Predict the structure.
Amino acid sequence: PICALRGIPGNAVIGLSSMQLAILSTDQTRALSGEQIANLTIGAIKGLGFDVSGSEGFILQQGLGVFSSVQIAALNSAQIAALASEQVASIRPDSIRGLALDRVRALSTDQVAGLTSEQVRQLSDEQVGALGGVPNGYPGSGYPYSQISGLEGVDISAMRSTQVGALKPEQIRAMSGEQVAALPVSGILAMKTEVLRSEEHTSELQSH
């Protein structure tokens, strides 16, 4: 019975393969607890479908809030691309560093906008420098790093100085005046010379 699924110890779910998860009904997957989903193996996570209307998509959505950084790192490009902004926001801040750099580069503007200030602050310097590296998630589909425009001022002001120092000139050029004005002073001091010499926003940076 469906209710019996919750009786399975969390660590026993480790034995479920992606193929077994795929045959669970929506009702069965909704019966799984957060503890059980948090115990899914890397292999099982990699095999999860990303159709949000399906049972596997439901597991993926629920898992975002409980997955460790290692489990988040197991998500493939198609799974990440299918996430809505509110789903990106549900990733645990202490797990956000699990996103591989190529996944970070491909985040869409809407997905970047979904990041919370706490998540942004937990990103590694390398991840911040990779934000928007693949235009709109697809090579050749727009200006590089334009997705960083999705960050709100409060997200930018929450950045650590080393994160701001990791920003590329292209990212600064893609920012609005309001975003640049939100950069913390300590971060501007950490910026590389080539970023400060960027054509855009020179006056805003100097006003800090």
Remarks:
- The radius of gyration is 19 Å.
- The chain is about 50% helix and 0% strand.
- The CA atoms of residues 135 and 143 lie 6 Å apart.
